[in-house]
From TrEMBL:
GO function term, MF aspect, one: COPII receptor activity
Keywords in alphabetical order: Membrane, Transmembrane, Transmembrane helix
InterPro entries: Svp26/Tex261 (IPR007277)
GO biological processes: endoplasmic reticulum to Golgi vesicle-mediated transport
Organism taxonomic ancestry: Eukaryota, Metazoa, Ecdysozoa, Tardigrada, Eutardigrada
Descriptive protein name: Protein TEX261
Transmembrane segments: 6-30, 95-112, 124-143
Signal peptide extent: none
């Protein structure tokens, strides 16, 4: 009885540790993308191209349904079109809406396929990680680059005398701070002060 209770306690601690580790990793990646936005753009583009090529191989080597393959290819097309304005990803664009819709559709088609055909756990996990989660997660992390790059765009625009309105809109976007890094920074400062991660200065 005691070991059974302790097993649940240990499981809960492991889940908390895994969640904390994931948050730290995402924060580190967000910092990395901010400092190397050009390199991040090239890496994500190649990830999209490789994913699209692997999708074409699935019906040949693994007998995946053609509907899942086509849906996956269209999703990669949406990802690639989003990269045209990288790192300023247009959340209100139809390509972003298509990315969200196809993310849900692809998961439905994939779950249906894996329930009808047996695959080992590591094979199923590899499919979901490489084909379903990798590129969307990279795009999510790259949203933090907006906080640094958009003001640069506004500075260059003002120096060339193009438009003060664009500068104002970019400053407003920066103030909103809707990126993943901003959210993680808020969590760090508000909920993790006891370990020194969120210490605030007193004024």
């Amino acid at each position: 009885m005691l070991l059974h209770i302790l097993s649940w306690v240990a499981t809960f601690i492991i889940i908390l540790a895994a969640t904390f580790s994931l948050a730290v990793a995402l924060y580190f990646l967000a910092e990395l993308v901010e400092e190397n936005s050009v390199t991040a753009s090239k890496v994500i583009r190649w990830m999209i191209i490789i994913d699209a090529a692997l999708f074409l191989l699935l019906p040949i080597f693994e007998s995946f349904p053609i509907t899942l393959v086509i849906s996956g290819l269209v999703a990669q097309l949406c990802h690639y079109m989003l990269m045209r304005t990288f790192p300023a990803i247009q959340i209100k664009s139809p390509w972003f809406a298509g990315t969200i819709i196809l993310f849900l559709v692809n998961h439905y088609l994939a779950f249906r396929h894996f329930t009808e055909h047996y695959y080992a756990f590591n094979e199923a996990f590899a499919f979901f990680f490489l084909f379903m989660w990798l590129v969307p997660m990279a795009l999510l992390v790259s949203l933090s680059a907006n906080d640094m790059v958009l003001p640069t765009y506004s500075d260059s625009a003002s120096s060339l005398g193009r438009s003060s309105e664009n500068s104002f809109m970019n400053n407003q976007r920066r103030k909103q701070g809707s990126s993943l890094k901003t959210f993680l920074t808020y969590v760090k400062e508000e909920y993790l002060p006891i370990i020194g991660l969120g210490a605030k200065k007193a004024f």
